[in-house]
Amino acid sequence: MTAATTATTRTATTPAAGAVPARAVDLHRDHGRGATAVRALRGVSVAFAPGTFTAVMGPSGSGKTTLLHCLAGLDRPTRGSVHWGDTEISRLPERRLAPLRRRRIGFVFQAFNLMPGMTVEQNVELPLRLAGSRPERGAVRTALAEVGLAGRERRRPAELSGGQQQRVAIARALVTRPDVLFADEPTGALDRATGHEVLALLRAGVDRSGQTCVMVTHDPVAAGYADRVLLLADGLLVEELERPTAALVADRLGRLGTTGGPFPASRTEV
Ligand SMILES: Nc1ncnc2c1ncn2[C@@H]1O[C@H](COP(=O)(O)OP(=O)(O)OP(=O)(O)O)[C@@H](O)[C@H]1O
After folding, report:
1. Tens digits of per-residue pLDDT, 41-76?
2. What ligand 1 atom has the least distance to the C-alpha of 62?
């Protein structure tokens, strides 16, 4: 297969349940009710194989963040289901979902979301503390070394560059060794060169440690680091691109009629 090989599917592969760290089946998500309800997702089925890097793309408002949040257990579907391995998480009460999410899911945000009053080390050990385990200094140092920040443990976020702060956020997301790392526009607040360092780091985590990674991005060049691109439009999965190149992704986004401009999801009575 060439790098430009594409496959168009409306419902992505249905895999063997337990082998897949995250999948969604017929996912619907409405925001609000009645005449002003927004149908952000309108029946998305997708699976993420272990050790793969997937980019989620599509016009602004097409449902990317909603999909990521539902997959990560940060939002609830209106209809359909989300599964982590053999566990359906979409109907779990929050008191059961929260500990599972802390153990099995890592999340990286565009704006880093570090705790400004804490040191780098304290930020990275936070998920371990929240999970109720006594943070092993070794685990935190290893996570920081993996993102190239050994020796910065005692710094505060404000003393670091944007790229370094995002690397701390990645170390924090990976310190629990999650089944899936979700990243919502992780390079959106970074300059191009620094963004590439962060993308190379995510790619290395997939290649070296078999990490499963799912990233929302608007940038075709960023998507070129992934194994697969899912293209959303108007709350639907409209295309999958295997082994994407930046040029191919830019072309497909262009055909969707936008490179990131407004493209609102359906507003209908539900
Ligand atoms: N909490 C909410 N309440 C009402 N509408 C919402 C809410 N969250 C998202 N939406 C709407 O749902 C649709 C999908 O939003 P979402 O943020 O998932 O899209 P997106 O593809 O990530 O957009 P962008 O690229 O602009 O970040 C949009 O029309 C958005 O306005």
Report:
1. 999 999 999 999 999 999 999 999 999 999 999 999
2. 21
Domains and CATH numbers, the chain: 50-76+99-258 (3.40.50.300)
Distance from C-alpha of 264 to C-alpha of 13, rounded to nearest angstrom: 27
Supply φ then ψ for residue 46, to 5 degrees.
Answer: -160, 150
Tell the burial category of 84 from Cβ atoms under 10 Å away from its Cβ (0-12, 13-18, 19+): buried
Strands (DSSP E) contained in 204-255 are 212-216, 228-233, 236-242
Note the pTM of the prediction, 2 decimals.
Answer: 0.89
Residue 83 Cα to ligand 1 midpoint, Å, equals: 22
Ligand 1 and 32: CB distance under 6 A:
yes
Instruction: Check pocket membership of 38 for ligand 1, CB cut-off 6 A.
Output: yes
Q: What is the DSSP letter of 258?
A: -
Q: Whose CA is nearest to atom 27 of ligand 1?
A: 60
State the distance from the centre of ligand 1 to the C-alpha of 1, rounded, in angstroms: 35
Average pLDDT of the chain to the nearest whole number: 88
Sheet holding 87-88, edge to edge: 87-88, 79-84, 22-31, 38-48, 266-267
- Ligand 1 in reach of 231 Cβ (< 6 A): no
Ligand 1 geometric centre to CA of 22 (Å)? 22
Q: Which atom of ligand 1 is nearest to the CA of 58?
A: 21
Inter-residue contact 108 to 74 (CB < 8 Å): no
Ligand 1 atom 12, closest CA: 40
Please name the residue whose Cα sits nearest to atom 7 of ligand 1. 31
Is the confidence at residue 2, as pLDDT, over 50?
Answer: no
ipTM of the complex: 0.98
Lookup: tokens for 98: 């929260």
Asked if residues 72 and 182 have their Cβ atoms less than 8 Å apart, the reply is yes
